[in-house]
Write a structure and sequence with these properties.
three-stranded antiparallel beta sheet; single chain; alpha+beta
């Protein structure tokens, strides 16, 4: 019905069911969580004559070789929660 103010919105809008692809939303949420963890903790590397120390936030981890440290840093950037759990600092994330 059209009144003095013009047509009512419900006259022209057909209700359409909204479907949400939860797989896509879950992946987006997981990626957002990963990025938020990485943004919140500074990663610093201090090199020594043999190996290095990797600092993640207030935690420090000594490695005998730079290559082994880089492997763990790469793993951390891919899945910070899993590495935090493996190294015992998941409560700090």
């Amino acid at each position: 019905m059209i009144n003095a103010h013009g047509p009512q919105p419900s006259q022209f809008v057909e209700e359409m069911p909204i479907t949400v692809d939860t797989r896509k939303n879950d992946k987006q949420w997981e990626e957002r969580q990963r990025i938020n963890i990485l943004k919140n903790w500074e990663i610093r590397i201090q090199f020594h004559d043999i190996g290095c120390v990797v600092y993640i936030g207030c935690k420090s981890f000594a490695f005998e070789s730079v290559s082994s440290a880089m492997q763990v840093v790469n793993q951390y950037t891919d899945d910070p929660a899993a590495v935090a759990k493996a190294y015992g600092f998941e409560g700090h994330l």
